[in-house]
Amino acid sequence: MSDNQVDFSGLLGPGIPTRYFAKGDAIFREGERGDEFFVVVRGQAEIKSGNRCFETLGRNGIFGEMALIDDSPRSATVIALTDCIVAPIKENQFLFLVKHTPFFALSVMRVLAYRLRRQNKAVCQDPLEVGLSADNRSDTISGRRQFSGTRAQARADAFESSGQSQRRPRSNR
Hints:
This protein is an alpha+beta fold. The chain is built from 5 helices and 8 strands. Helix content is about 35%, strand content about 20%. Helix 2 crosses helix 3. About 15% of the residues are buried.
C-alpha cells in the first residue's frame, strides 16, 4: 500500500497460529467461501483475478477481510509470490476486534477505502479491463447490493440489539 500502509503487526504475537505457503501456492481461490482473513507475517502475496493483479502485499498486509464483512465468496485469488507465512484471523476474532477496538475497524476500513479508490481509478480508465461486465458494472456503480446469509443477518441483529443502531436526536446548538 506504499504511503497508506496500515500496520496490523499488533495482531501478531507469541502463540498466534501461522500457516506456511511455498512460492506459487494458492492461499485461497476466487469463489471459495471464507471464514477468516490473513495478515502477512513474512514473504509476499499477490491478490489477483484471472490475469489481473490487484495488489502485492508484504509484511503486515491484510487480505481476505471482505468475506467476513459481507458473507460473499472470495472475490479474488491470493498466491504466495515468495515462500510466505500468514496468520489467519478467524471471524469470531475479527468481530471481537471490531467491537472492542475501534481503531482496528478504522484500519480495515482504510485498507478497503484505499483499494476501492485505486480500483475506481482503474475502472475510469477502462471498465472492461478490471473484469466487470456491463451488467455488473452498473450494479456496482449504483451501489446496489443485497446482503444475505446467516452471518450478515446475525451481525445486523447483534448490532440492532446492542442499541447502537438507535440514532440520537441532534441538538440545536
